[in-house]
Design brief:
This protein is mainly alpha-helical and 196 residues long. 78% of the residues lie in helices and 0% in strands. 48% of the residues are buried.
């Protein structure tokens, strides 16, 4: 019964992505295209590997964590004001992200695919974490909260606790938490200062 919680997580992910796309189209959110494209690619690889290894329902949040970023990536081309200027650091992270996926393609093993998908995703995530840390106003925190919730729902559906079933949800939850913290840290600091 708990495995159906992943459907709620997937719905939350869709809600968060739609909020991000809306903010992108308005120009209030500025997605880092390297992050969003590589997030979609890495998640699709991890989901395909998990499905191939028989993971089942627990792989749905991983798959959904790829659909949303792909839609955000596409929406970033619709509004010139929604574009975040990419630098050498962004492209370097993108290159390492692609290399990690290429290493997976050379092995074709499910556990290795998940590992390299995570490594790829980490390199994709770093530019957006750096952007959110320095310019939190360019991010939509609700989207990262929804992704965090989506990642956490995976644990309710895991039947066999092995690397291919839990590794990406653990990573996805940790990365999402870090993004949420990066976006809201200044507001939390102000709130903490007011409460003293």
């Amino acid at each position: 019964m708990l495995q159906y919680l992943v459907i709620v997580g997937a719905a939350a992910e869709i809600f968060g992505v739609l909020a991000y796309i809306r903010a992108t189209l308005r120009g209030t959110t500025k997605p880092n295209r390297v992050s969003w494209f590589m997030w979609s690619l890495g998640s699709f690889v991890a989901a395909a590997a998990a499905f191939a290894d028989g993971v089942g329902w627990a792989a749905i949040p991983v798959f959904m964590s790829g659909v949303g970023p792909f839609l955000v990536f596409m929406a970033s081309f619709a509004n010139k004001n929604a574009y975040w200027k990419l630098g050498k650091f962004d492209y370097l992270c993108g290159l390492f992200s692609v290399l990690a996926l290429a290493l997976w393609a050379a092995t074709r093993e499910a556990a290795v695919a998940v590992l390299f998908a995570i490594i790829s995703d980490i390199f994709a995530c770093v530019p957006t974490i750096a952007k959110a840390w320095k310019h939190p106003e360019t991010e939509s925190g609700i989207t990262h909260i929804a992704t965090l919730f989506n990642g956490l729902t995976s644990f309710a559906a895991i039947k066999a606790w092995n690397f291919t079933s839990y590794a990406f949800p653990v990573y996805l939850s940790a990365a999402s938490f870090l993004l949420v913290f990066s976006v809201y840290r200044r507001k939390m600091a102000k709130l903490a200062a007011c409460c003293k």
